[in-house]
Design goal:
214 residues, mainly beta, globular, 1 helix, repeat
């Protein structure tokens, strides 16, 4: 059974919207207080405590989403200020600040190569961001509603999204065409995730249900 083995009181000055545990045992947290923090989790099992490694202020509005690369060296953050920032977790610096346009970035996720990010938008689009080029290179029209959750398939060929209207959709990245759509719920789908082999899609919603699609 899992239990609460550690607690950080007042980890941020406002609500915490996103967390991520990196492969290098750092915990990342993003908050409405406009700050992203990295925490050292390497000794968590022994000391049951977390210490702040670095704080990354700079977003003008609250941080929506924070994710890290597979090697744990870099992280990406998205914010209500319509910017995506690329953080270097080794140096503690900000490598890139990408302006995505009003309402064009909500939750983000890395592709398997860590060279692209997928993001949902308030305009009902799924956007592909080329990190090196620092811009959106592809926009896929989803269902016309606010896209609140996104995920890449393990092979990088598909992206899934969950909408505020409850619609779950899967798209082919290369062609931008819709592969599958599920319209069996009416409340926001806050999280989507592919299984490790890519054969199943998990979706969690405000309707209190978690569903697995194949």
């Amino acid at each position: 059974m899992y239990r609460a083995s550690s607690k950080v009181t007042s980890a941020h000055n406002d609500g915490v919207w996103s967390t991520f545990w990196t492969s290098r045992d750092q915990i990342l947290s993003g908050s409405v207080d406009e700050v992203v923090k990295s925490w050292d989790a390497s000794s968590l099992e022994e000391s049951q405590s977390l210490s702040v490694v670095k704080q990354y202020p700079g977003h003008v509005l609250g941080t929506i989403s924070v994710v890290a690369t597979k090697d744990g060296r870099r992280a990406a953050t998205s914010s209500l200020d319509c910017q995506v920032r690329i953080l270097n977790l080794e140096t503690g610096g900000v490598e890139k600040t990408i302006d995505t346009g009003a309402g064009e970035t909500w939750q983000i996720a890395y592709d398997p190569t860590d060279k692209f990010l997928v993001s949902g938008s308030q305009q009902g689009k799924v956007n592909i961001i080329n990190i090196e080029q620092e811009k959106i290179v592809q926009s896929i029209a989803a269902n016309g509603k606010f896209i609140v959750s996104v995920a890449y398939s393990p092979d990088g060929k598909l992206v899934a999204c969950g909408g505020f209207d409850g619609v779950v959709a899967i798209f082919d990245v290369e062609t931008g065409t819709e592969v599958q759509k599920y319209q069996d719920r009416t409340k926001p789908v806050r999280s989507v995730a592919f299984s490790p082999d890519g054969s199943f899609l998990l979706a969690a919603s405000d309707d209190m249900h978690v569903k697995i699609y194949d």
